[in-house]
Amino acid sequence: MLFSAGLGMPAVLRLVLLARELQTAGHEVRFTCAARARHRVARAGLVPVLADPHRFSRAWRPDLVVYDPLCTDSTATAAGAGVPTLAYLPYVHEPLPPQPTVWIDPCPALIRARPEPDAWPVSCQAYEVPGQPTPWLTKLPLLPRVCITGVPTGTRPEDRRRARLFHRVAEAVESLGMQLLVLNGDDHPWSLVLRGSVLVVHGGDEGVVYAAARFGVSQLVLPAGEEELRAGQLIEQAGIGRCLTGDEPMDSLSMLRLRFHIAELVNGGRVLPAAAQLGTSIARMPMPADLVPGIEALLGRHEGRQGGRQEVQRAGRKEPGQEVRRDSRPESRREGLEQIRQEG
Asked: Are 222 and 245 in contact (CB under 8 A)?
């Protein structure tokens, strides 16, 4: 089974969980991803692939492809594999073609705008590498903790404007006497960070939306673009957070509004109970291990159809006294991989 992930670390870590479950069930798994994520894949006990995913797929000939529908390399690999495919349904972004054989939907129904009727639901979990956490993160904070992540670092006017808004939010948090935690990058130990947090401030990234949702933490979204704005609006409509843009002037009045919004998200209203209830509902959703029997059944149906076609083709080609050859797929895999090694 071949897993093909894109550039985003949250999407990689979501695929890693399912890949580990399939490998534990006895299936042979390979994982293609960006270079910066290979160490995470290897630490999870999986085999990262260094070659181009499309070339590797043609050589290795997987029986199943699980791919990122927002990555062009991954979708090309799925399109050319000629086998059943699975993909995680994106939160708000439009997936690239082709359609997978089956969609996997990690999004809880409360914040899913357009559900896919036949998708397999699964809890929006992500793999975390066990490590040595900072001691203060393992203890519940004495003050309400607010996490801020996704602060823009670019030099475009839009990036600078949004960065100022993030900084204003940070100032408002500290002025309210709360504990502030600013996270850089897109790879965080959410199980440690969010268990003691009451609010996450972010730019609408899918991975952060799901992390906050499964831990029952309210969210304040400062959207990065149109898709992230839709994500924030869905969160606000679901009653588990608020979505703010930087259209308001950076004056004292806007700071008062920010303080009010943050205090409301942290201390009262209906947002905290709604976020906690969402986290409870996510805990009851199927886990990645629960998808394994369905995946194996899907493969069985596909192999049954392929076997019937091969028997018809063999019967048509067989000469009197000629022995029918068995499927040489393992040999073909070895030959293809040897060719990649020689070319590389």
From this structure: yes
Euclidean distance between CA atoms 49 and 5, whole angstroms: 11
DSSP secondary structure letters along 66-114? EE-TT-HHHHHHHHHH-S-EEEEPPSSSPPPSSPPSEEEE-S-GGG-SS
Amino acid at 220: L
Q: How far apart are CA 292 and CA 298, in angstroms?
A: 10
Question: How far is the CA of 339 from the CAs of 73, 150, 290, 342, in angstroms?
Answer: 21, 42, 37, 5
Distance CA 15, CA 31 (A): 9
Nearest to 173 by CA among 67, 76, 305, 265: 265
Confidence of residue 110 (pLDDT cuts 50, 70, 90): very high
Angle at 266 between CA 262 and CA 271, to 5 degrees: 100
User: In this structure, what are the phi and psi dihedrals at residue 21, rounded to the nearest 5 degrees?
Assistant: -65, -40
Cβ distance 116 to 103 under 8 Å?
A: yes
321: confidence class by pLDDT, cuts 50, 70, 90: very low
Quote the mean pLDDT of the chain: 87
Alpha carbon of 304 to those of 99, 298, 309: distances in Å? 22, 10, 9
Q: Using alpha carbons, list the distances in angstroms from residue 30 to 51, 116, 287.
A: 11, 28, 21
Check if the beta carbon of residue 203 is closer than 8 Å to that of residue 150.
yes
pTM for this model (two decimals): 0.87
- CA-wise closest residue to 330 among 65, 61, 85, 64: 61
